[in-house]
Write a structure and sequence with these properties.
- This protein is an alpha/beta fold and about 280 residues long.
- It has 2 domains: about 250 residues, NAD(P)-binding Rossmann-like Domain (Rossmann fold, 3-Layer(aba) Sandwich); about 30 residues, no CATH class.
- Helix 8 links the parallel strand 6 and strand 7.
- The protein is globular and about 60 Å long.
Length: about 280
C-alpha cells in the first residue's frame, strides 16, 4: 500500500452502506442531483441508479448527461436529464418550472453543483466576475432552486442533502476567499432554515466533505499529491448518511480541527502573513 493510500485509509474510513436498505428506501422516489455530469454527482447517479428511484440529473453538459443516462438506463434505471447553467437566472427559472410541472413530484434534492476557484485577492482586482460566478453557483442557485421546490418537498415530506465542504467549518485559508465565502453562505442559510423546514416535515442533511479527487481540484497542482477521498467513496458516504437520516456527516477528525481553528485563530492570523511574505518573496 502506498503512503498516500495508507493515510487515506486512516483519514477516510470506508462507510458501511446497506445497499439492500438503500434500494428499499429509495424505491418509487424522485431524486434530483445537481452537478451530475462528473465527480461526486456522477457517482451518486450511478449508485442511486441501481435502485428503483427515478433520477433527475442536472448539469451544464448535455453530452455527459446523456452518456450517464444511457449507462444507467441500460441497467434498468429510470433517468431524466436537464442541461442548465445554474449561473444563469433564466436557465435556473426554466429548470424550476420544469420540475414543478413533472407529475412524479420530487422527494430528495442533492445540492451538489459547485464552483471552486483559487486566486490571491491582489490578482482578483479586475476579476469581480469570479466572485459573482462563484456565489451564483454555490449560494444563489441552490437557494433559488430550493425556494421553488419547497412546497413539493413539504407535500411529500422530502429531504434536502447539501454536499458541502469541511472548509465551511474551519478557519478560512488564503487564496480561497471566493470559494469559502460562497460555500459558507449556503451552509449558513441551510442551517438557519433547517429548523423551519424540519417543522414542516422536510429533512435536511449537511455533508461536510474533505478533499475529494474530482475534476474540480485538478487545476490546483498542490492538491494532486495530497490525500483525498475518491468520488465513489464520497457518494457511498453520502448515501449512508441519507439512509440513516443523519443531520450532518463529517470526517472523524473535523471536531478537533474546529477546536484548533477556534483556539488557534490568533496565532494563525499572526503567523500567516509572515509565511505568505516569505513564500511570495521566493
Amino acid at each position: 500500500m502506498s503512503r498516500n493510500r495508507f493515510i487515506e485509509s486512516l483519514l477516510f474510513p470506508k462507510p458501511r452502506l446497506d445497499e439492500d436498505g438503500l434500494r428499499r428506501s429509495m424505491a418509487g422516489k424522485t431524486i434530483l442531483i445537481t452537478g451530475a455530469s462528473s465527480g461526486i454527482g456522477e457517482k451518486l447517479a450511478y449508485l442511486l441508479g441501481r435502485t428503483d428511484a427515478c433520477l433527475v440529473l442536472v448539469a451544464r453538459r448535455m453530452d455527459k448527461l446523456e452518456a450517464i443516462r444511457e449507462a444507467i438506463a441500460s441497467q434498468g434505471g429510470k433517468v431524466s436529464v436537464y442541461a442548465a447553467d445554474l449561473r444563469e437566472e433564466s436557465e435556473l427559472d426554466a429548470l424550476s418550472a420544469w420540475l414543478r410541472e413533472r407529475p412524479q413530484g420530487l422527494d430528495i434534492v442533492f445540492s451538489n453543483a459547485g464552483k471552486s476557484i483559487r486566486r490571491p485577492v491582489m490578482e482578483s482586482l479586475d476579476r469581480f466576475h469570479d466572485f459573482q460566478r462563484t456565489m451564483a453557483v454555490n449560494y444563489f442557485a441552490p437557494v433559488r432552486l430550493l425556494l421553488a421546490v419547497l412546497p413539493e418537498l413539504e407535500r411529500r415530506r422530502g429531504h434536502i442533502v447539501n454536499v458541502s465542504t469541511i472548509n465551511a467549518s474551519l478557519i478560512p485559508f488564503p487564496y480561497w476567499a471566493a470559494y469559502q465565502a460562497s460555500k459558507s453562505a449556503f451552509d449558513t442559510w441551510l442551517r438557519a432554515a433547517a429548523p423551519e423546514l424540519n417543522a414542516r416535515g422536510i429533512r435536511v442533511t449537511s455533508c461536510y466533505l474533505p478533499l475529494v479527487r474530482t475534476p474540480m481540484i485538478e487545476p490546483t497542482a498542490a492538491y494532486r499529491k495530497l490525500p483525498a477521498m475518491s468520488p465513489e467513496h464520497a457518494a457511498r458516504w453520502i448515501a449512508a448518511a441519507v439512509l440513516a437520516n443523519r443531520r450532518t456527516i463529517a470526517p472523524w477528525w473535523l471536531p478537533p480541527g474546529q477546536l484548533a481553528s477556534l483556539i488557534g485563530r490568533g496565532l494563525w492570523e499572526w503567523a500567516m502573513p509572515h509565511l505568505l511574505r516569505r513564500r511570495e518573496g521566493e
